[in-house]
From TrEMBL:
PANTHER family, A to Z: FELS-1 PROPHAGE TRANSCRIPTIONAL REGULATOR, PTHR40661
UniProt keyword annotations, A-Z: DNA-binding, Hydrolase, Protease, Transcription, Transcription regulation
Domain (Peptidase S24/S26A/S26B/S26C): residue spans on this chain: 108-212
InterPro entries (alphabetical): LexA-like, LexA/Signal_pep-like_sf, Pept_S26A_signal_pept_1_Ser-AS, Peptidase_S24_S26A/B/C
CDD domains cross-referenced by the UniProt entry: S24_LexA-like (cd06529)
One annotated Gene Ontology cellular component of this protein: membrane
A single MF term (Gene Ontology): DNA binding
Organism: Nitratireductor arenosus
Pfam families, A to Z: Peptidase_S24
Name assigned to this protein: Peptidase S24/S26A/S26B/S26C domain-containing protein
Coiled coil, from the record: none
Biological process according to GO: proteolysis
Lineage: Bacteria, Pseudomonadati, Pseudomonadota, Alphaproteobacteria, Hyphomicrobiales
Length: 219
């Protein structure tokens, strides 16, 4: 076990926590910390995980493998806002660059949203929720162009039917998805009746996460 892992394991023990508890606080599966500490998977902590772990264990990120002068999510807010667009029709949506575990690279983050405690209490996976602006009109009247959606990136299976951030070949899009029963297909739908629905194979659609909230000005 390397020095960083020993430091983390010691801090968890000192605080009377379990690996499972810390994993859940990170918004990960129950075995995440045990796999990282005992099996070396992943080899290194992503910037977002390292930042959150620093908060949980009250350890400077420099002791968790961060390069000097660098941190992941500064304590500037609750939900990171991404400098990428989710297309909902006309436009040229950009792709999402992320780590293998689905966490978005810190270079995409251009700000933060802050929320009062009663609102945060209802968000189960806030460390893995990201915000991004919507372009296009295919999800109107539900989502107007210029809206901001909040995407829970732990929810990558499109069930139940709902609105998801996804990519089916044209870059990042915000669409309503539905698993087609007894098939290997996903139905990709727009709320705007001007746009056709499509059925694609599940392996043709990458689901980044479920839209759990959105914000838009009503003018």
């Amino acid at each position: 076990m390397d020095a960083v892992r020993k430091r983390i394991a010691g801090a968890i023990a000192d605080r009377g926590l379990t690996y499972k508890q810390v994993s859940i606080e990170l918004g990960k599966n129950h075995a995440y910390m045990q796999q990282y500490l005992d099996r070396g998977i992943p080899a290194k902590l992503s910037e977002d995980v390292r930042g959150r772990l620093s908060e949980i264990l009250d350890i400077p990120e420099s002791e968790l493998g961060a390069k000097a002068g660098r941190s992941s999510r500064p304590p500037a807010g609750d939900v990171a806002s991404l400098a990428i667009r989710g297309g909902a029709g006309i436009g040229s949506p950009e792709g999402v660059l992320s780590h293998d575990n689905g966490e978005v690279y810190a270079d995409h983050i251009n700000g933060f949203w802050s929320f009062p405690e009663p609102v945060k209490a209802g968000w189960r996976n806030m460390p893995q929720v990201y915000s991004l602006p919507v372009t296009g009109d295919s999800m109107e009247p539900t989502l107007a162009s210029g809206s901001y959606v909040f995407v829970d990136m732990t929810h990558t299976v499109p069930q139940p039917e709902d609105i998801y951030a996804c990519d089916f070949g044209d870059g990042l899009s915000i669409k309503r998805l539905q698993l087609v029963p007894r098939t290997d297909k996903i139905k990709v739908m727009s709320d705007n009746e001007r746009y056709d629905d499509h059925e694609l194979r599940r392996d043709e659609v990458r689901v980044y996460g479920r839209v759990v909230a959105w914000f838009q000005w009503r003018g």
